[in-house]
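Hi everyone,

Forwarding the result from last night's run.
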Amino acid sequence: MSSTLIVASSIEKRGVLDSKSPSPPIFDGTTRLYFSSRCPYAQRVWAAVKYKGLDEIECVEISLSDKPVWYIEKVYPAGKVPALEHDGKVVGESMDLLYYLDEKFEGPKLAPTEESKKQAAAELLEYTDTFNKIGFTGLSMKDSTPEEIGTVVAPAFDNFESALAKFSSEGPYLLGEFGLVDIAYAPFIERFEIAFSEIRGYDITAGRPKLSQWIEAMDKVEAYSSTKVERSTLLSLYRMMLESDYFKRVGIVSDQIKPGEAPVAAVN
C-alpha cells in the first residue's frame, strides 16, 4: 500500500471553540492540537497529524475571529494557531511543529531521509515564506491586470514548476514521494489556485503542467484532502480579506505594490 494512503482513522474535527466556549481540561496529560481549518499554517500541522496516524492527538478548533480568552491566558499567549499541547508544554509555529511531530511521534516520516533529497528539502523550505509573500502580494494588486499580476507572481510559480521537475521521475511530489515539503506548500497553493483564478483572473497552472499534476496528486492524499475547506468558503473568505486589504494591514505585503517589486529567490 502506498504511504500516501496512510491516515489517522479516528481524528474528528470538534466544534469550533469561541469566546463563549469552556476550555478543555488543559494540561491534563492529553496531547492537543489547537488549530483553525481556515488557517493555512494550521492546516499544515493538521494534515501532518492525520498522515502520521496520530489518533492520540485531540484536535481542537479555535475561532480566529472570536478567540477564547482561556486560550490566550492559559494555553498560548501569542494567541495564534497552530499550537500543540504536549508533555506539559505548548509548542507553536507550523514549521517547528512539523519537525516536532516527526521527532516526537511515531508514524511515517515527513522529512526526507535520503542525503540527496535533504538539501533540496532545505532549499524549498527556506523559500516558503518568500513564495507566500509573493503570492499574497499578487493577490493584493486590486487595480492591476492579470498580465501585471503575472509579472510579479510568475517567477515564483515557475520556480515551483522547476522544483517539481527535479525528482519527477520518482513521482509527482516535490521530492518524488509525498512528504514534509509538500505539506508546507499545499495549503497556500490551494488558496492561491482559487483566489488568483476567481478573483484576479490569473491561472497559476497555465503553462505549468507539473504544478497541475501536483495539485491533482495532493487531492489523492486523504490526510491532506480531508483537511480542505469548501472551495466556496475559501473564495468568500479571500474576497473579504482582499477587499479589506487584509494582507497589507497585517504587514505581509507593502502598501505600495508595483509589478516587479515582489521579492523573488530561485530554488535550485
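The two ends are 32 Å apart (CA to CA).

Cheers,
N.
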